[in-house]
Amino acid sequence: METTQLDHYRDLLVSRRRHLARQINEIAEDVQPAVTPELYPAAPADQLDLGAEISENTRLLGTAELEQRQLDAINAALERLERGAYGICDGCGVEISERRLELVPETTMCMDCKKAAEQEAAARKKGP
After folding, report:
1. CA-CA distance, 39 to 46, in Å (whole number)?
2. Are 8 and 86 in contact (CB under 8 A)?
3. Which of 25, 41, 81, 123 has most Cβ atoms within 10 angstroms of its Cβ?
4. Over the range 56-69, which residues count as b (16 or more CB within 10 Å of their CB) and which as e?
5. pTM of the full structure
6. Phi, psi (degrees; rounded to nearest 5) at 96
7. Looking at residue 48, what is its pLDDT?
């Protein structure tokens, strides 16, 4: 891969990393402090508020977890870029298409290997 292409993907990855870091920080600010029964009387309306707050916190934390995994993948892609291994499929060793790297710059697999991995995972999940 040419230096100009590598610079382009580095910029793309760094931009995505900044965006995700901002989103994760915003979520951390939105998550309510831990709720304890002592903070809420046993009134039914308060219990509904408590349930809604817990549900919202759970949703926010799930989103933050997914975004943190994506951030980890981006950091790993930047490390591969520095090592000279960026854009090479972990599955078969061929160069990953530019089209795929534009859509998912943190990817570690070409489309063929990704599809095969997803089919294999689905078959394992389905069972014998």
Report:
1. 10
2. no
3. 81
4. ebeebeeebeebee
5. 0.75
6. -75, 140
7. 66
Where do the H-state alpha helices sit in the chain? 3-30, 44-83, 98-103, 111-126
- Read off the tokens for 20: 């995700």
Sign of the C-alpha dihedral, residues 23, 4, 104, 107? negative
Burial class from Cβ neighbours inside 10 Å (0-12, 13-18, 19+) for residue 77 reads buried
- Say how far apart CA 9 and CA 108 lie, in whole Å: 14
Task: Identify the sign of the CA torsion 105, 109, 110, 115.
Answer: negative
Bridge partners, residue 88, by sequence: 95
Contact 101/107 with Cβ under 8 angstroms? yes
Tell me the pLDDT tens digit for each residue of 80-120: 999 999 999 999 999 999 999 999 999 999 999 999 999 99
